[in-house]
Amino acid sequence: MGKGGSVSDEEWARFLREAGAGPEGAPREPSARARMVARRLREEPGRPEGWRTYEPDQRRRGKGRYAAGLIVVVALLAGVVAVAPERVAGWFGSGQEAPLAAESERPKQPPAGVAAQAPTLKEPFRGSPAARWGEGADSIHVPAARATGWMSQAQVAQALQKSRDFLAASSLDPGVLRGEYPARAIALINPDQQDVQSYLAAAFSKPSGKNGPLLLFSRFEKDKVRLVGDVVKTRGRMTFGEGERGAVKVSTDVTYVYPMVRADGGRDEVARTIVRREIVMSWDDPAKVRIKPGTFSLASYKVDATNGGCDAYTGGNFTPAFGAERESAGSGPAVDPYDRSTTMDERMREAGSADCGTATRS
Known about the structure:
Elements: H1 9-21, E1 37-39, E2 52-54, E3 71-77, H2 85-92, E4 134-135, H3 153-171, H4 174-177, H5 183-186, H6 194-205, E5 225-227, E6 233-242, E7 248-262, E8 271-283, E9 297-306, E10 334-335, H7 344-351, E11 358-359
Parallel strand pairs: 1-2, 3-9, 10-11
Antiparallel strand pairs: 4-6, 5-7, 6-7, 7-8, 8-9
């Protein structure tokens, strides 16, 4: 663990148990867990109550189906349970640590605890594992290309680059973060994928929990909050393989950390919104599927947000809470928003059907 020293399994287990419980008398903050929305979601054992499914249009159009079945999964965590700083610092040590290498594979455990220090305008990621993460799209691991499905090695390399371009245009673009329409990102989505185009039209005209822009795009209300500086910390990776009808299926799993302050400038409290997205893009063969060359079909997307607002998905913007707004109690299980050692499906199954949980750190 670098300068902080190594941590035994017993210490780490004790930290997680006590972090979930919180120090005696510590305030808990709310974590609203929106219900899963899925399209063509196959039956899975142990699926929580409250999942809803929708069968997309199966009619053939032109050269085969216009898109694979679409899966949508949503969760919200809007808060953090406090952990006594002296407990964390005492276990894991303190001090500046070296930046992490890119995440080329799923980690085997959550990131170790860090000294609980409040973020500041000069150090908006202080007291967070994101302090050691990379910045922006460049820190998202892209694997080496190889010929796959209908694509040559060079075509796969281009598909991977465009996939990362979509992540940047949807979750990192400064204008999109301020609430502007994500035109560059949407231009990369297959215009012939009718169910997705219907969703996009609804998301920006009448956003709701089922059809909201936050399922794919990170947006904040510029009149209320603004990003601290111009850095968004990221941690994640891309993988690829052959999909249906020889398509190249690109799977992405990225966590974004947005440090925000109130837009009025009257106070300098920094609140972090943490968003994890798993998005699967299908780069289809135009000879087999009706698709505009240079675009992908959206196969699935899943999102999990911390401190974005309990009702964020019924509107069009993340709404981070500050100060006393973050002190109401949650009722669901504790979740570490920085834990990337499990898939989002596994995390959601652990959460069950609870509508309100707690995040262990922010």
